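WARN no homologs supplied; continuing
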Amino acid sequence: MNSPDYTPACLTLARLSARLGADPLLIQGAGGNTSIKEGRTLWVKASGLWLRDALARPMFAPVDLAEVRRRVAGGEADPVGPALQAGRAAPGLRPSIETTLHALMPHAVVLHVHAVEAIAWAVQPDAEQRLRMPLAGQRWAWVPYARPGLPLTRAVATVMARHEVDVLLLANHGLVVGGATPDEAEDRLNHVVAALRRPQRRAPAADLVALRTLAEGTGWALPTHERCHGIATDPAQLAQARAGVLYPDHVVFLGTRQHTAPQRLMHDDTALRQWLQSERQRGEHTPASLALPGRGMLVRDDLGEGAQDMLACLADVLPRLPADMIPVCLPDDEARGLADWEAEKFRRQQVR
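OK structure emitted
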């Protein structure tokens, strides 16, 4: 496989990014972003691309670091677009919506991941206090939830004005680490994720043959990742999934709530099939996924790889939560706002 025409620093970052992007416990679909500062230039992952492809296609957009920082300090609505070094950028690359966050961090290398282990802490009540023990010894800070992009950057700036940090835990979002080199940043990331590791509950198995027979001809299918069925077969996971949206990327790919088939139909497959066919005919209002309580999950038969990966992320997060805990969810108006946000619509369009 031929690498894109990267600078040596970008090539090192690309190798690291490809490793991170291949691990679904760190990165799901087009989520997450990485960057490296090289002189006056900040090379940052482009929006909508998959980090796993960093060695296969141009991935990083160059922006003028000082210009981004100046425009952020000046309160400009778009501090990144005018700072893009267009003559050095591959055609069509649009810097990540998190570019301002990468510019704000003082580290040469910044890694922003949606690590499952971090999210499983970041959606818990009193998470900041709970995190003190596992993160003892790290220079870290808790960042209250803010919408990705400039609002999150401003929230991080407020925190960083009080603390010198290498690690940020973002409420209802994920994890950011910085380092002087790619190796240092990766090593720090690995140490933090290991410290945050949580036990997983086992979910009852789904009857895949019965589910496949039920879905046939209805416009629904089984999810790509078998572990997704635990969302429906484990009553605790289902209750937590139905509580609301846990993190922004869920909204982008799966919608603002978890849809569930009526319990009264769970023992009448004929009626359930009719209901499934009717739900599938709702066009753009058809949900991405359906939980069949006690039986398993179904997804639209045209669901893309990014959405499949995001459903698997939820299936990885939920069994790491205490069974009796109701997670902290995004407010309903924030979830709806994310669904209609222009920056996220652009990112959805880039996903295969």
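Confidence is low (pLDDT under 50) at residues 342-352.
OK
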